[in-house]
Design a protein that fits this description.
This is Sel1 repeat family protein. InterPro entries: Mitotic_Regulator (IPR052945), Sel1-like (IPR006597), TPR-like_helical_dom_sf (IPR011990). Keywords: Membrane, Transmembrane, Transmembrane helix. By secondary structure, the protein is mainly α. Among the domains are: about 5-100, no CATH class; about 105-205, Tetratricopeptide repeat domain (Serine Threonine Protein Phosphatase 5, Tetratricopeptide repeat, Alpha Horseshoe), CATH 1.25.40. It has 41 helices and four strands. A four-stranded mixed sheet has the order 3-2-1-4, sandwiched between helices. Strand 1 (about 5-10) and strand 2 (about 15-20) form a beta hairpin. The relative contact order is 0.02.
Length: about 750
């Protein structure tokens, strides 16, 4: 029995009738009539014998066992009306459906043939008939694809979405998956809507669509519904989806949503990697790098990274660069390291950009180019890479590859510091401490020093200790100072070792312990710290915490002195003057006194003044002596102030000037110098350079006498009537040369 299909298309009127695929000629007058009138012969001149007769007239009735099935495409009420009129010769609804199915399949087959033959327009038309006229979901999906890609029809993303939705609503899994992607990735003009995306992905996933299963897993993982994510990853992985296998491997590696099982993770990574999935190859490389689930094997890691990197995996390219830079699993090759960093950097990988910047800064594998270093640091820094932000700040601070700009240095240091970069936190603390690029603020300096110090940055620990030691930005707290000095000292920061030595020597924050002091001074001194070298020499000179040894003291004083430490230069001069630990040499003594004096050491300025006055190690020169005494006196050295007063009183190297003499005696006397106090008393008693004032004279004599000055005691007795007259006192006051010699030699 052959089946002949009669297809009727109706909108608000009869559009067409096809019988066995052939179009029936229908008079216009019939097309606008009611359904009932289709079945009746037309009156008048209209050539229409009724639908039944017209069907038979098309010649199919001669076929043996031919039966007709009717397919009505139109409103349901019209369909029911139509089927009522054909009931007498129709094969029934079941047959209609079978016929419809057969017709749709014919259209789909023809469309696919035309597609393969390159006849895209015809294929589209056939898909459209099946999609529009028969509502077939597969055809609707194909129509959507044609609109999406502009195949056989003008590209129209809006129409594509309409047809994907029609197919999806009829349960087409592929369309559901594509529609989920539209909402997830904001494609085809669709606004992002994760809820809609998850709805369509999950609908397709429930039908076994592997891509949808993977994407459903991804969406649940993003929501931290890890157990649900694992469920869908597993389904997709069982269908050999490499992306799902890799993601499921990550879950087993970390224990997210499933019991942690590193061996299972490796198994899944391998399955995905064998399929050439770059992310899995990279993850497998990580496992070999760190010994996760497998024995650590840097050569295997390198191989895995290589495979992934050659496929363009940005992280693998970065990791491969690290392997070449460090020689992990491959011969060290800085040029290749830079090459792979560049590939990754050009894809926007922030750490690779930073590392490439380092290559350019130091000429590692590339020609050194500070401007390019800054360029790559900036790219990385603008993505938020803290190390690059710190490096860029450093470039601005020191003008490397960019115009020096301390304010910008602070800006980038702050960005990095706020992201937790310890070096930047220390650098920002330094900027606040010294007022570089920002207003000086010791409280802020302490804040950032502390953050860096707590991350074990040794120099920050030292500076934080120094702040506690001197009370910069915090209350003085020697115990805290010692705590932080010790941490830094144990990391071999020479400055901290020296300061810790000071704490033990002086008993600041700890019990005085010369042995500990000498130990830390020695550590710092061996690193070249000039202050520690001087103090270690001092320990040898006086046997503090170590056996007294003047020759070793001289040796350490010399090391420090040769590095410009003024105190050590003076100490070495004293050793040469007196022959302590070295052969006595007045010329060497004068040489080192002068170096210390030129460095601003007030005591040494006084000492070299004495050398010029006495002619020790240098040619005697009162003018130069006066010059150096003045420098020392102006820095507050009481001895130099008193001697300069004597020079003015007696005209040694300067024009005699009693007023100047009185001025300098007063400065020395105010500092408690007993001889100056006595001499100032003489000046007031006799009116030398000051208005005569016996009461003032008595006050200064008493101050000097309280310190044991015998001349002052005699003056007091005399003024009270029990001693020599004032003329004698005056004579004593003016007897300068002998007195000065005694002072300078004493």
């Amino acid at each position: 029995m052959s089946k002949i299909q009669v297809e009727v298309r109706f909108t608000d009127k009869l559009e067409s009738i096809r019988v066995g695929g052939q179009e029936m000629e229908i008079p216009n007058a019939i097309m606008t009539k009611s359904v009932e009138e289709w079945f009746e012969p037309a009156a008048g001149r209209v050539n229409w014998d009724g639908l039944g007769a017209e069907i038979k007239a098309m010649g199919f009735s001669d076929e043996k066992n031919a039966v007709y099935s009717f397919l009505f495409n139109g409103p349901e009420d019209k369909k029911r009306e139509f089927m009522g009129f054909v009931e007498s010769f129709c094969l029934g609804e079941e047959a209609q459906q079978e016929t419809k199915k057969k017709t749709v399949q014919d259209y789909l087959q023809e469309a696919k043939k035309n597609q393969q033959a390159g006849n895209a327009e015809m294929a589209f038309q056939q898909y459209m008939v099946a999609a529009r006229d028969y509502g077939h979901p597969e055809a609707q999906f194909e129509v959507a694809r044609c609109y999406q890609n502009g195949t056989g029809v003008e590209k129209n993303e809006e129409n594509a979405v309409v047809w994907y939705k029609k197919a999806a609503e009829q349960g087409n899994a592929e369309a559901q998956c594509v529609l989920g992607g539209c909402f997830y990735y904001q494609t085809l003009g669709v606004e992002k809507d994760d809820k809609e995306a998850r709805k369509w992905y999950e609908a397709a996933a429930n039908q076994g669509n592997v891509t949808a299963q993977y994407m459903t897993g991804q969406m649940y993982m993003a929501l931290s519904y890890n157990v649900a994510a694992v469920k869908w990853y597993t389904k997709a992985a069982e269908q050999n989806c490499p992306e799902a296998q890799c993601e499921l491997g990550k879950c087993y590696e970390t224990g997210d949503g499933v019991g942690k099982n590193e061996a299972k993770a490796i198994e899944l990574y391998r399955k995905a990697a064998v399929q050439g999935y770059a992310e899995a190859q990279k993850k497998l490389g990580n496992c070999y790098s760190y010994g996760i689930g497998v024995a650590k094997d840097l050569e295997q890691a390198f191989e895995c990274y290589s495979k992934a990197a050659k496929q363009g995996n940005v992280k693998a390219q970065y990791n491969l660069g690290v392997c070449y830079e460090c020689g992990w699993g491959v011969t060290k090759d800085l040029a290749k390291a830079a090459e792979w960093y560049r590939k990754s950097a050009e894809q926007g990988h922030a750490r690779a950009q930073c590392n490439l910047g380092v290559c350019y800064e130091y000429g590692k594998g590339v020609t050194k180019d500070l401007a390019k270093a800054v360029e790559w640091y900036r790219k990385s820094a603008e993505q938020g890479d803290a190390r690059a932000q710190y490096n860029l700040g450093w470039c601005y601070e020191y003008g490397e590859g960019v115009t020096k700009d301390l304010a910008k240095a602070v800006e980038w240091y702050r960005k990095a510091a706020e992201r937790g970069n310890a070096k930047a936190q220390f650098a920002l603390g330094e900027c606040y401490y010294y007022g570089d690029g920002i207003e000086e603020n010791n409280e802020e300096a302490v804040k950032w020093y502390r953050k860096a110090a707590e991350k074990d940055v040794a120099n920050a620990q030292c500076m934080l200790g120094e702040c506690y030691y001197y009370g910069y930005g915090v209350e003085v707290n020697n115990e805290e100072a010692v705590k932080w000095f010790r941490k830094a000292a144990e990391q071999d920061v020479a400055k901290a070792q020296n300061l810790l030595g000071d704490c033990f020597y002086c008993g600041y924050g700890v019990k005085t312990n010369y042995w500990e002091a000498a130990k830390w001074y020695e550590k710092a001194a061996n690193q070249g710290n000039v202050d520690a070298q001087n103090m270690f020499g001092y320990c040898y000179e006086y046997g503090k915490g170590i056996t007294k040894d003047l020759s070793k003291a001289a040796e350490w004083y010399r090391k420090s002195a040769e590095q410009g430490n003024a105190t050590a230069q003076r100490n070495l001069a004293i050793f040469y003057k007196n022959g302590y630990g070295v052969t006595q040499n007045k010329e060497e003594a004068a040489k080192w006194y002068k170096k210390a004096a030129e460095a601003g050491n007030a005591d040494a300025q006084c000492d070299i003044g004495c050398c010029y006055y006495c002619g020790e190690g240098v040619k005697k020169d009162f003018g130069k002596a006066a010059e150096w005494y003045r420098k020392s006196a102006e820095q507050g050295n009481a001895t130099a102030q008193r001697v300069l007063a004597i020079f003015y009183k007696n005209g040694y190297g300067v024009t005699q000037n009693k007023e100047e003499a009185a001025k300098w005696y007063k400065k020395a006397a105010d500092q408690g110098d007993a001889d100056a106090q006595y001499q100032l008393g003489v000046f007031y008693e006799n009116g030398y350079g000051v208005t005569q004032d016996k009461e003032q004279a008595m006050q200064w004599y008493k101050k000097a006498a309280e310190q044991g000055n015998e001349s002052a005691k005699n003056a007091i007795d005399r003024m009270q009537g029990g001693g020599l007259g004032s003329a004698v006192a005056a004579g004593a006051a003016l007897g300068g040369a002998a007195l000065l010699w005694k002072i300078l030699r004493g």
